Amino acid sequence: MEPVIGIDLGTTYSAVATLDSGRPALIPSRAGARLTPSVVGFTAMGERVVGERAQILGDEAPERAAPATKRFIGKRWSAALEKAAKLVVPYPVLAGPQGEVRIKVAGRVMPLTQVSAMLLGELKLDAEAHFGRPVSKCVITVPANFDEGQRQATREAARIAGLEVMRLLNEPTAAAMAYGLVNSFQGRALVFDLGGGTFDVSVLEMENGVYEVRATGGDPQLGGDDFDARIVQWLVAQVPDLYREAVVKDRVSMQRLRYAAERAKRTLSDKPEAFISVSELGDHSSGEGRFCQLDTALTRAFFESLSEPLTTRCLDVCRQVLDAAKLTAQDIEAVMLVGGMTRMPLVRELVTRFFGHPPVTGVNPDEAVALGAAVHAAELSSRQGQTVLIDVASHTLSVGVLGGTVRKLIPRNSPVPATAKDAFLPGRTGQTQARIPVYQGESDFADECTKLGEVVLHELNVVNRADVPIEVSFELSNEGTLSVRAVDTTTGMAEALRIEARTTLSTSEVDSLKAEQAAYSEAQAEKDKALAIQTFPRVLDKAERLVRLLEKSAEENPSPEADTAVGQVKALLAQGRVAVRLQDTGQMAEVTRLLERLVALS
Ligand code: AMP
């Protein structure tokens, strides 16, 4: 069967996983790492680097690398967004032709979906190297509070990367699925997912393979970067007065401070104090070369007091989501921590105090989401019905009405798929067309919600507005795609709108980015293939040594099991030799995997 993968496209780190003999397992990157930093960069020679190499490049030359772009994907550009971005990322954010956000990195202006596509493309290559053959079908996870635009942009990125998305899955749900499967857990669980850029909470009931989300919520502007920003503010206050203004304006200096702050934050998860030393703080653009150095120490206790407003916000979100699920903290049997920030001891303490018991262990917080995505991908591809997922709408969906308000048709946290219908009257007598704007958001006021699009009904004949009711129906699919239909009930004329069709880039731009990505991937895949062919003989050498070892031990301690083990490795060895003759990298990858499993079991 064609391999399928689950992808956690994270703000700071990404991971790819698959189901291996019924258990989810991470696919290591080609560099041998479990996680891939979500960073894309370009060297001075113009070479594209992704993951760890891009992260290292960014530490040396911040203007050449783009970390944390997920913060802005699928968003509309605004001056406020640009200002907020300055505090957390080293690159400028610009407005694209459709009002979308683009970034400038190493002198190139890039759509965010292209940056995400480069990350996805890298994970795809990792999976292809693992399986030794092409992989396209996947499940990609997104924060539960991602809105329609952000989901669309993620799909667009996947399209550019040449991936077929079977489903977008909410991250907390994915984590719960992995936990449920690995630990055979049944009951009420809350997933507390504090990552680099976002905070998500979901409450689920898990029973016999049925995962029912009861409520979900979050704060899309709360994550590890905000904790870093608090430390950065504290550091800036310690910069000598003479340099402070220049440092705040200087991207390189600010990136150095952010980097040091993040390191210190991690250190404080293990130690009571972190020493911070940042050099060359000043104006890097003028070439004057007047820099200062900052040496200081941050204690865990002080960092916790700096973080208090942020941790308070986390618990507020938990309360809101429990309220929406009509549950209390005491009803929750298992709290699962997901996201790198949950390694912070204070977060664990607060969770323990709030729920009255410590969070569960057993699934690595950095890996749970990708593992759950792999579980769901396997289920969608095999359709064996072993797991059933009932999710909820993460935002309220409404129709705009007169007076700048909205009428809510599908409230947030309604189980999906969901349908709703309502009748609306035209605004005035004599009008020949009606515009029905569709909004997403929790406010009663249209201008505080996000407009998803509008359905336009033409050829209306409104002699008396009360006589021409327009029926609007919403249909929300189980992965959050909305279809809207409006019918003039007097004539039966109808118009439909599938919000899914909305993308951030023009079709021609998507096509050209896709072609560019495909050419890059093809060249990389060729290199990976050559490398696999070159290194596989070493695997066969290992297998030969293993056969000799097993034969020796079978001679010394004869048993049917020992004979089976010898037979299994010999069969793999034979399969491997055929693979070499045929230059079949798929077979080579399979032999390698099976051998590794045998070695791990023996
Ligand atoms: P994620 O998006 O889930 O990969 O989360 C990444 C966030 O977790 C970043 O803000 C990291 O700085 C933070 N993080 C990772 N490891 C630790 C740690 N040991 N202690 C505190 N924060 C961490």
Average pLDDT confidence is: 91
Give the CATH topology of the largest domain. Nucleotidyltransferase, domain 5
Small molecules bound: adenosine monophosphate
Main sheet, how many strands, which sense, barrel? 6 strands, mixed
Strand content: 25-35%
Extended strand count: 27
Tally of individual domains: 3
Unreliable stretches: none
CATH architecture of the largest domain: 2-Layer Sandwich
Estimate percent helicity: 40-55%
CATH superfamily of the largest domain: ATPase, nucleotide binding domain
Distance between the termini: 27 Å
CATH class of the largest domain: Alpha Beta
Account of the 3D structure:
- By secondary structure, this protein is α+β, with helices and mostly antiparallel strands.
- A hairpin with an 8-residue loop joins β16 and β17 (291-299).
- The chain is globular, with a radius of gyration of 27 Å.
Short description:
This protein has 602 residues and is α+β, with helices and mostly antiparallel strands. The chain has 14 helices and 27 strands.
